[in-house]
């Protein structure tokens, strides 16, 4: 063979896969593909005909016995490798069949007999609602195949020089495609963001829902991005996210440098502060936030899905849903506000407010003795985030029906197998102070405090839908962050 087989393909075992209509005019496609791959593995000429007959009879049997005459069926044809053998697999969701009965029918008996005679292994598997699978195996020639295989030596990108001159700026519409390509270089297609959608990026840029700090290298390549997302155009707090760095530039302190640019930009346009969610698979962005003066305000222990990969950090993905630490960085004076803290969270929330040094009058059940009345119907917003498999319930107005409404929503979301559910409560409402104990009875526990998020502060609670989280795998960069994690773990355990 002129070009050797890539060793990575053999390790994965998947050589090819076709999904084709269950019609006999596709037979040459299936047969020719099989013969070509058999040739790659050094089958002698006389064995090519055996492979051809095995595949031909198998495909014909599936087409003729699995579908009604007027039915347009589909067959999934796969060729796989295991040491010493090739496996030809035919899967379909057509009529259930019995191989023993097929062997007794004149139309199919000869084909089944021929397959069994020529194949080294023959297996029929009933997959229930997923249909059925026919597997036939042909052993490889006895000689070694190492001369057919090319070893793979991963090409590591050469780290960029530390003293390279970099250019910082703000994201423009024409940068959208380059940002999508940067996200791919850093995360493949596992990043939970609009980063892969250039047209969507242009739209939210144009309408004021997004700004971003960007970095280009000396070759004018787009190498880093830090997004500033707004709840609505004109919002005074930005959600600092979509922090993406080209793998060649990791270790160049770019996150901190971009955040400094974002701070200066925020000061110039009158933002109150920056909110951010830092991953806990590594400590770098957490440390960057802390050195800039940001304070921990909470922790969401099952925020991102297991499929997220960081190229050159965890190429195999995560072993569980990933936690994020919440931070807030004050950059301009905010308005004076009154907030109402539930008794069960009085200690931790008072401490967080003290760290943030916000212009707040804080009430607890000890200092607020007024009677809180709720009337009418609850007003809430429910949003679903498919890329995170999570949902957010935002309370806009408390009504008499708040608890049964929440109970119903939780049941619906759990039945849809949503992994995490978040509840956002307005701290400007005295009712929040009294209702949290009932929300905890529904399964919600402490998540964090987010200042100035929707024209005021919110308390974010979290609910896990039968999700196990090993909190020992959560990497925390500070003692303060560790104390917040310990509190959240204890709060969740107290619900049991």
Element layout with pairings:
Elements: E1 5-6, H1 7-12, E2 14-21, H2 27-40, H3 45-66, E3 74-82, E4 85-92, H4 99-104, H5 106-118, E5 121-126, E6 132-139, E7 149-150, E8 167-170, H6 176-187, H7 198-206, E9 210-216, E10 222-230, E11 237-245, H8 254-269, E12 273-279, H9 284-291, E13 295-304, E14 322-330, E15 337-340, H10 346-356, E16 360-363, E17 379-385, E18 390-397, H11 402-415, E19 420-426, H12 430-441, E20 445-450, E21 458-464, H13 479-493
Parallel strand pairs: 1-7, 11-12, 15-16, 18-19
Antiparallel strand pairs: 2-3, 3-4, 4-6, 5-6, 8-9, 9-10, 10-11, 12-14, 13-14, 17-18, 19-21, 20-21
Structure description:
By secondary structure, this protein is α+β, with helices and mostly antiparallel strands. The chain has a domain at 5-150: Histidine kinase-like ATPase, C-terminal domain (Heat Shock Protein 90, 2-Layer Sandwich), CATH 3.30.565. 32% of the residues lie in helices and 28% in strands. The protein has 13 helices and 21 strands. It has helices at 7-12, 27-40, 45-66, 99-104, 106-118, 176-187, 198-206, 254-269, 284-291, 346-356, 402-415, 430-441, 479-493, and strands at 5-6, 14-21, 74-82, 85-92, 121-126, 132-139, 149-150, 167-170, 210-216, 222-230, 237-245, 273-279, 295-304, 322-330, 337-340, 360-363, 379-385, 390-397, 420-426, 445-450, 458-464. It has a seven-stranded mixed sheet with strand order 8-9-10-11-12-14-13, with helices on both faces. The chain has a five-stranded antiparallel sheet with strand order 2-3-4-6-5. α2 (27-40) runs antiparallel to α3 (45-66). The mean pLDDT is 88.
């Amino acid at each position: 063979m002129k070009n050797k087989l890539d060793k990575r393909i053999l390790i994965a075992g998947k050589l090819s896969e076709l999904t084709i209509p269950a019609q006999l005019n596709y037979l040459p496609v299936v047969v020719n593909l099989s013969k070509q791959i058999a040739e790659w593995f050094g089958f002698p000429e006389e064995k090519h005909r055996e492979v051809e007959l095995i595949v031909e009879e198998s495909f014909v049997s599936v087409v003729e016995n699995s579908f009604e005459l007027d039915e347009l069926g589909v067959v999934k044809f796969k060729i796989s490798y295991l040491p010493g053998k090739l496996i030809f697999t035919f899967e379909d969701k057509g009529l259930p069949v019995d191989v023993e009965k097929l062997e007794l029918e004149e139309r199919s008996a000869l084909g089944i007999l021929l397959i069994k005679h020529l194949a080294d292994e023959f297996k029929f598997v009933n997959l229930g609602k997923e249909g059925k699978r026919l597997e036939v195996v042909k052993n490889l020639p006895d000689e070694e195949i190492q001369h057919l295989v090319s070893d793979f030596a991963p090409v590591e990108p050469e780290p960029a020089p530390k003293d390279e001159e970099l250019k910082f700026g703000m994201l423009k519409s024409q940068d959208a495609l380059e940002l999508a390509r940067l996200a791919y270089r850093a995360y493949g297609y596992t990043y939970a963001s609009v980063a892969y959608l250039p047209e969507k990026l242009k739209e939210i840029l144009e309408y004021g829902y997004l700004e971003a700090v960007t970095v280009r290298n000396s070759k004018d390549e787009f190498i880093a991005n830090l997004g500033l997302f707004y709840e609505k155009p004109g919002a005074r707090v930005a959600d600092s996210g979509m922090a993406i760095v080209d793998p060649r530039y990791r270790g160049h302190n770019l996150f901190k440098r971009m955040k400094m640019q974002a701070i200066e930009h925020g000061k110039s346009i009158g933002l109150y502060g920056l909110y951010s969610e830092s991953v806990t698979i590594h400590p770098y962005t957490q440390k960057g936030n802390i050195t800039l003066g940001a304070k921990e305000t909470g922790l969401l222990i099952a925020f991102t899905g297991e499929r997220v990969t960081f190229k050159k950090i965890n190429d195999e993905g995560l072993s569980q849903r990933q936690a994020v630490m919440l931070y807030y960085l004050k950059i301009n004076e905010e308005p004076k506000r009154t907030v109402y803290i539930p008794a069960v969270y009085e200690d931790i929330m008072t401490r967080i407010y003290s760290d943030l040094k916000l212009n707040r009058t804080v009430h607890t059940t000890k200092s607020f003795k007024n009677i809180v009345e709720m009337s009418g119907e609850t007003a809430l917003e429910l949003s679903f985030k498919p890329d995170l498999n999570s949902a957010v319930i935002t309370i806009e107005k408390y009504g008499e029906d708040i608890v049964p409404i929440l109970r119903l929503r939780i049941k619906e979301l759990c039945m849809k197998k949503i992994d995490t559910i978040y509840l956002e409560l307005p701290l400007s409402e005295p009712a929040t102070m009294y209702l949290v104990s009932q929300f905890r009875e529904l399964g919600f526990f402490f998540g964090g405090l987010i200042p100035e998020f929707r024209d005021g502060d919110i308390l974010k609670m979290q609910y896990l839908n039968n999700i196990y989280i090993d909190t020992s795998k959560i990497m925390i960069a500070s003692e303060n962050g560790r104390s917040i994690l310990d509190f959240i773990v204890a709060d969740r355990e107290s619900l049991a």
